[in-house]
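Journal club prep, notes for RB
We'll compare a predicted complex against what the paper describes. Inputs for the thiamine diphosphate case:
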Amino acid sequence: MSETTAPPRNVDVARLVEHHRQMHRIRAFEEAAIQASHDKLVLGAIHPSIGQEAIATGVCLNLRRDDYLLSTHRGHGHTLAKGADAGAMMCELLGRAGGTSQGKGGSMHIADVGVSMLGANGVVAANINIAAGAAHAIKLRREDRIAVSIFGDGAINRGPFLEGLNWTKVFDLPALFVCEDNGFASTTRTDAMTGGPGPAARAESLGIPATTVDGNDVAAVDEAARALVGEVRSGGGPRFLVCRTYRLTGHTASDPAAYRPDGEVEEAWGNDPIARCAAYLAELGVSTDDLESHRTAAQEEMAGVYEAARNAPWPDTALAYADVQDIADPREEAFRW
Amino acid sequence: MSETTAPPRNVDVARLVEHHRQMHRIRAFEEAAIQASHDKLVLGAIHPSIGQEAIATGVCLNLRRDDYLLSTHRGHGHTLAKGADAGAMMCELLGRAGGTSQGKGGSMHIADVGVSMLGANGVVAANINIAAGAAHAIKLRREDRIAVSIFGDGAINRGPFLEGLNWTKVFDLPALFVCEDNGFASTTRTDAMTGGPGPAARAESLGIPATTVDGNDVAAVDEAARALVGEVRSGGGPRFLVCRTYRLTGHTASDPAAYRPDGEVEEAWGNDPIARCAAYLAELGVSTDDLESHRTAAQEEMAGVYEAARNAPWPDTALAYADVQDIADPREEAFRW
Amino acid sequence: MVVMTYAEAGKSALASEMHRDPMVWAVGEDLGRGGVFGQYKGLVEEFGPERISDAPISEAAIMGAAVGAAMAGTRPVVEMRFADFALCAVDELINQAAKARYMLGGQLRVPMVIREPMGIWRSSAAQHSQSLESWYTHIPGLVVAVPSTPADNWGLLRAAIRSDDPVVYFEHKNIWGLEGEVDTDAEPLPFGVARTVREGTDLTIVAWSATVHVAEKASEALANDGISVEVIDLRTLWPWDKEAVFASVRKTGRLIVAHESVAVGGFGGEVAATVSEHLFGTLKAPVKRLGAPRIPISYAPPLEDEVRVTEDRIATAARALLA
Amino acid sequence: MVVMTYAEAGKSALASEMHRDPMVWAVGEDLGRGGVFGQYKGLVEEFGPERISDAPISEAAIMGAAVGAAMAGTRPVVEMRFADFALCAVDELINQAAKARYMLGGQLRVPMVIREPMGIWRSSAAQHSQSLESWYTHIPGLVVAVPSTPADNWGLLRAAIRSDDPVVYFEHKNIWGLEGEVDTDAEPLPFGVARTVREGTDLTIVAWSATVHVAEKASEALANDGISVEVIDLRTLWPWDKEAVFASVRKTGRLIVAHESVAVGGFGGEVAATVSEHLFGTLKAPVKRLGAPRIPISYAPPLEDEVRVTEDRIATAARALLA
Ligand SMILES: Cc1ncc(C[n+]2csc(CCOP(=O)(O)OP(=O)(O)O)c2C)c(N)n1
Ligand SMILES: Cc1ncc(C[n+]2csc(CCOP(=O)(O)OP(=O)(O)O)c2C)c(N)n1
Ligand SMILES: [Mg+2]
Ligand SMILES: [Mg+2]
């Protein structure tokens, strides 16, 4: 189990700038989504990824458009980083026409098959077996894409974690597992509910090499992900990446997170992945104006996206009966008088 | 992960003799059960434990009557070694009155709550969570008993393995897990379907110390089990024991096991735990007559047990409607004209 | 008589049983912080973390460990958080909890309560909105409770905790805040005894859980048209109070069974089939079932509304039945 | 026309679809050795271990991986070995496979077949004998097939594999050896089209899976008493052929629905409720449901027999209905 923490020596500034832009887009999207939730325009639960943006961009910048991605309830950032349209995503969160899934899935099922993002999931750890299966299909089809599953540290206590990882090892499949270790499973500290050393040790006990990185250091995530994606794509079998991070917001947009002692969150803000990336870029000579412009551009984009979504029409109610299955018309069954 | 293989130095001959007797009883019971199956007096599937007797006696001789035991589909030996009555067990296998469960459960659900044997199970790995819960109850009730779950090497690929082991670690429960590693999951070699080093490594990744022994060396199993049971009973938390063994019969009484190459089974007979124990006892000066008498006594006992069972009456059909639940009478619902 | 919410009633029912019997304990994710819907608030302070226990995200272990803990002499109350997540622990509930007493010929029992918050609750989408109560009525060994009021949640949860058999206990997420009077001196409610919510002579509406309140509203609207509706809340689906339903339908001659769950394969079919068989000839009109169309539940509010059994839909069906 | 067994029909249906479409593959425990009931014998030799794949004892992964593999463009056929074990993978089937197409607004589909050997089979006891087909009819997004003959197993399994939606496919363990004629040139069967097993005028019996044969025997016995019975095999429960059942009951005026599964909450309730509503006034007698009592299935043969819907029980119910 290797540890990567120090920023990599051979830095590609343009690439780091790209991360910085993208992380700001994710943050601004989440802030707009939280606003929409407070405005009661998003009724269902949303799970912001503020503080974890470096994992989304660090991993996804190393993926091709046709690489499959399966995510969790906290999937906005992953989906954006995979290349989904922010406007369509926001419409989905507001349940409007033009949503990525026509408003039928919402935040917890956000997906954009056009960029091979096969869905967030409302069931913790359920995406692990699905990703294993996508990787299985890749192997059967002799393709050179890979399948990626991103999940949290709470997910490692569910059976599918063992079954899905073992599956990819036994069938030698092109799968990358990414564990976002933010220390919490909703209101509970995961260390209190997790036996043994944690995710990496569990993956290795199943024969899957694991790497652990500072998930708030986008350069470190990028470097580790690049290496692992390369190994997986070249037929090396499954790999596991643990990213240590912290959730800077509540579990949901409506969670005050009172279960965290005073100061803990403030201190964690000192480790904000975006600020760290900015400081590093400044060191490398990128101007503060440029860096600031990434933030303002992202905020303007997402403000517009939110504005557009709130003005978008509701989906046609006929859609409620569409895409259930090819046979039988559900209208026949219900509310006949 | 410690390895124990050589026979222990400080041998208690009487104890080893007890193992020898008990192993013969288990073997004779299984042989009678197989006969009953061939005689079509047992219709359902039975899973003989011939070749694995040393694990049953080696573990159970270290348990108190009030220690809970949960077993698998291959549970006859464990149940006998825990102290259940062979006659009642055979009646259960034949589905007769006087069966341990009145003929309602049969082989795969063999149980004797009187000796705290809470049941074999027809669902692989299901007994792991149940044992974890029994251990949880022990802790809540501040008792000094322990809960033991015995399962096969195929069970380690099911989610409950991870969830149940993690549970006992997190709640620091008095649980002992015993994995009978016989190399097969019905017709499939488990190594082909198991990622990583195997059961012990998986247990340790969950924070549970694991010991691996030669499961055909009854003295080694006994010694390891004694140590682990002591640690668990004295509040040390969960422990894991891997016993390497081999299934000398087919998966079921009707499985010819053609999936095993010629010679493999013959060779494995050379490692018969009973023969090894006998040889060792002979070395220690126990007479061949005495050793032979254990076998004949066991065979006579089980022949009698089978004879009694085949002559036992069928259970009263009214029992079909008993012990469903306290409320409501199922007779009201069905077959009214 | 105390006024409390449906959630508070559940909480005090659990607390009173925990005071009464030291072997009662509750386990589930985040219970230490009061549970997702606050239905355990303050209990850990009162009973400590051993008896109000957090759990890893391990539904199969929560359910399976409860089975073992029940076999070993305690009375666990397991919290599944959403009925949808209980689908991660179906083997433990159906193959183990429901059958163990029987398979072992009565050598032991499995006294446990499985709390499953059910139903549609503001844009929770297809994996957080299901009502699957009918599944459990089909499984021998299980009791199925579906309380609709604070008083019933108080009375039925206590009965469930005292039951020596597993009880699948559905609380509806949309009525956690519903207030009502609770007689805290009352005995636990018996299983299988329906509640006549409102008496009437023209038509009987049988419902359960949150749909009872929809049926009540519909019957008020119908009263304005001079249609007299009797509303019956089954309270438990297994056992269910056939006699009460038969008696009412003998009087009214007409029956609507309304539930939030999908109509196809729903428990409304059981009620309709049973009444149609037993009161053949007595019925003045065919028994009408009202349930959700066979579609997953959408996230967008207008699509989500398409599956709802509303006051209007019940009233429309009632008028059609009487036309 | 070829004579083959129910098991052979399933095997050749799978083989023919695998020849037709390279994206079809099967996965489950012990398939490499032909499967527990021999229903995959020889296929690994023909198609290799990648397309007839063994699996670890990981039902959740078998089902969940199939969901992902279906989303990613293959057509997996998953073998659950016993319908009872599918209870270890219910989240994957209900929350994932059945809903994914809908939740994603039609962006993708989940073409997979879940083979679940069902039913009572010589003393297999409570965890290896269940018939839970009614559960899946209640879940939007799922097709439910229950073939009763070699010809239907041939025709329906091929249709299931070609379906772009998940199909829960129940084969009955007790009729693996049943022989029958199969037209191997025939097209796959459409879902939702019942088969009239036998024509009659006094009474209709609706059944599916192995119970069809019991109903057929009962109707022969009844014929000797001069009672003319029409037997209808639904073949698929979702969709189910209402029109065929209505047409038959319009003719006979009497209906028995018989199934091996538990009567309470069984699909017989859906059929009975639907017919009772739609043919109210046409029915000459109440619709009679025959299913198992609400008890787990015992191991001892005489106790196991207590739950069976036998030829005699069907005949007795029929005579009572006509009395
Ligand atoms: C099977 C299941 N159990 C419980 C839940 C409720 N739940 C939603 S998110 C969550 C916490 C997940 O923690 P983690 O996996 O660490 O992800 P994070 O929220 O920290 O990103 C829980 C318990 C669920 N969605 N699915
Ligand atoms: C959940 C589940 N899946 C599949 C089966 C079918 N089955 C019965 S025994 C067995 C093999 C078990 O292998 P192992 O755990 O190594 O025990 P062994 O038979 O070797 O003693 C299988 C697959 C089952 N009973 N339960
Ligand atoms: Mg977390
Ligand atoms: Mg084995």
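Talking point for the session: Residues B 152-154, 182, 184-185, 190 surround magnesium ion (ligand 4) (CB under 6 Å).
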